[in-house]
Amino acid sequence: FDMSVLDRVPSQAKILPALRSRDPNINSWRGRPGDGKIMGLTDSVTEILSAAYNVTRARMIFSDPIPEGKYDFISNVSKNQREALQQAIKKEFSLVGKYTLIETNVLELTVRHPASGLRQSVSADPEFSGANGFIWLSNQPIANLTYFGEYFLGTPVVNRNRLTGYYDLQWNSTTDGLKKAM
User: DSSP letter at 76?
Assistant: First the structure.
């Protein structure tokens, strides 16, 4: 997954069918915080919507079935990358998202006193990786657990932990592993 592609190809917001020859385990999307450019490989329409609207699947409600299949996407335009990707979704799939307030059950992320197992990060750069059945977050705010909680548990998570600072976190990449780590 080479993020330098964002700088090497012409400016565009495009969605294409994923390469059939690619290893199906290569599936992810990433964004660059510095300039907002994003790209994904072998992603579902739901994952592309997540990237475009900056929400997890747990916060999406669909009125109609969404298209199946796997896709590659890129939005490396100079500004408003998410909006450009939203327009590409509209063009490719005739889907449009809107933010709506609804009442639903959520999980609340709070801190048990004292918070055992938390260590402030000594890493210089923030990193995320997943391999060999584990997920590692390095130099990340605890609030990032809300995203992973929503992603793995399929339920909206509200961050009410009030912890400041950046931490190194690791857990078994199963749902039970995340619950135990939280």
Answer: -
Largest CA distance in the chain: 51
Prior bond to 114 cis, omega within 30? yes
Q: Are 156 and 150 in contact (CB under 8 A)?
A: yes
In this predicted model, what pLDDT tens digit does every residue of 58-110 receive, in sequence order? Answer: 999 998 899 999 999 999 999 999 999 999 999 999 999 999 999 999 988 88
Q: 168 is written with which tokens?
A: 């190194």
C-alpha distances in Å from residue 170, one per residue of 77, 120, 162: 34, 13, 20
The vertex-154 CA angle with 150 and 160, nearest 5°, equals: 35
**Quick one: pLDDT band at residue 163, thresholds 50, 70, 90?**
confident
Question: What are the helix and strand counts (H, E) for the chain?
Answer: 5, 9
What kind and span of H or E run contains 87?
Answer: helix 81-93
Q: Cα 83 vs. chain centroid, distance in angstroms?
A: 16
Residue carrying the six token digits 């660059």: 32
Cα separations in angstroms, 21 against 42, 62, 113 = 11, 30, 50
